[in-house]
């Protein structure tokens, strides 16, 4: 499972979680640092990423459009990168179950 971190999350997360989520990317590394949501969504969909975001708009989009891509919605407000790393690590088993669930389009991480 590979993750695509949106512009509201640190690019440092790629290295921090590489052991669990290899081949993950950040939008800035793909030339989409200032891209609109449609471009980010399209990349995640086309390249089979799970979209990791703090942006409520992606949650709403997943409800309306369905998936792919699946969305991991970080709901911890303005938080440190280390907290996002911790959420991704401690919820790894649940994220794997989410990945296997053909009906689930988004998962909230607190």
Share in β-strands: 15-25%
Question: Helix share of residues?
Answer: 25-40%
* Rg, nearest Å: 12 Å
Average pLDDT across residues? 96
**Residue runs with pLDDT of under 50 for 5 or more positions:** none
Question: In the residues, how many domains can be counted?
Answer: 1
Number of helices: 5
Kindly report the spatial arrangement of strands forming the biggest sheet. Answer: 2-1-3-4-5
Order of helices and strands: EHEHEHEHHE
- Secondary structural class: alpha/beta
Biggest β-sheet strands, sense, barrel = 5 strands, parallel
Number of strands: 5
End-to-end Cα distance, whole Å, is 20 Å
Name the overall outline.
globular
Protein model, in words:
There is one protein chain. The chain is α/β, with parallel strands linked by helices and 110 residues long. The chain is built from five helices and five strands. Helix 3 links the parallel strand 3 (50-53) and strand 4 (71-74). It starts with a strand and ends with a strand. The relative contact order is 0.20.
Supply database-style keywords.
alpha/beta, 5-stranded parallel sheet, 5 strands, 110 residues, 15% strand
